[in-house]
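Batch job 17 of 40 flagged for manual review because the log was empty.
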Amino acid sequence: MSADPESAPEAEPLPGSPEPSGEGGRPRVTCRMCGRPLRDRQARLWGLGVECREKLAVRTAPAPGRREVEQEALPGL
């Protein structure tokens, strides 16, 4: 039983899903802080624009420094 793609019914979007915009059919994603539309991949992944990510970087804790771990060798190796 093969389905003919031309006779298949058109898929309907799920209730509550955002409407796709004209840009490749992707839904419009806006910044969670300022509401401006996000354009690049990194911004869409974070959900924050470049300027808003820079604002938050000032308020985040610094990453701890790296140091060597002192560990005894496993017996038999």
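Reviewer: the log was empty due to a logging misconfiguration, but the result itself is present. Residues 50-59 form the longest helix (10 residues). Unflagging and moving on to job 18.
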